[in-house]
Amino acid sequence: MNEPISFFSGFGPKDLWYLSQAAWQTLVISALSISTGTLLGIFFGWILSESKIVGAITLGLVLDAFRSVPLIIQLVLFYNLFNVLGLAVNPFWAGVIILAVYTSALVANVARGGIEAVGPPMRRAGRSLGLSYFQTMQHVVWPIGLRAVFPSWVGVALGVLKDSALVSVLGHPELLKVARDLITRTQQPLLVLAVAGAFYFALSFPISRYAAHLERKWQS
Q1: Rounded to whole angstroms, what are the CA distances from 36 to 4, 33, 112, 208?
Q2: How far apart are CA 59 and CA 40, in angstroms?
Q3: What is the pLDDT of residue 6?
Q4: Burial class (CB in 10 A: 0-12, 13-18, 19+), 85
Q5: 3-class DSSP assignment, residue 3
Q6: CA distances (Å), origin 177, targets 53, 98, 171, 184, 201
Q7: Which residues are CB-contacts of 151 (< 8 A; sequence separation ≥ 6)?
Q8: Averaged in consecutive runs of 10 residues, what is the pLDDT profile of the chain (220 residues)?
C-alpha cells in the first residue's frame, strides 16, 4: 500500500529562511531604487515644469523612452551595456541603478503635476512676503504640490517594489528568483508561490497603510 505524500514534503524551515533572505534583498533593492529615483524624479519634474518646451524636447524624450520601453528589456540591455563598456557592475547594483532611473522617469511626471498644481497667485504671495524663488519653492510650492500628488507617488513606489522581481533576469537572488529555484527543487509551485506572495504582501501592505495614515493626518 502506498504511503500518503505530505503536501509540505520537500519544503522546510531552511527554505522559508532562504525566501526571507531573498525578501530582504528585494526590500533593499526597492528602497534604494525608490529613494534615489524619487529624488531624481523631483529634480527632473522641476526642470520639465520650469522649461516646458526645451525640457519636453530634451529631457522629456529621454524620460518617455524609459517609461515606454518594458523594464525587463531595460534591465537586460543596460546590464549587458555595462559589460560591453568594461564596467564591473554586479547584478545587485545594476538592478538598483536601472530601477532608480526607471523610477525617476515615472516620478518626474508626478512631480511636475504637483509643482504645476500650485498656481501663480500662491507663488506671488510667497514672493510678496520677501521669499526668494528657491525659498518659495522650498516653503510653498514643494510642500503643497508634492503633498497633493503623494497618492500617485505611493502607486509608483508599490509598482516599483513589485517590478523589482524583474531583477531576477540578471541573476541576483531576489525573492522571485529564489522562489523559482525552490520550485525547481521541491516541485511544489503552489506552496512556494503562496509563500513568496505572502512576503510581497508583507512588504507592500505596510507602505499602503502608512501612506493612508499620512493622508488622513494631512486632511485633519
Answers
A1: 52, 5, 17, 20
A2: 12
A3: 42
A4: exposed
A5: coil
A6: 43, 18, 8, 11, 17
A7: 211, 215
A8: 45 86 92 95 90 76 89 91 83 92 94 87 83 86 88 92 89 87 87 91 90 80
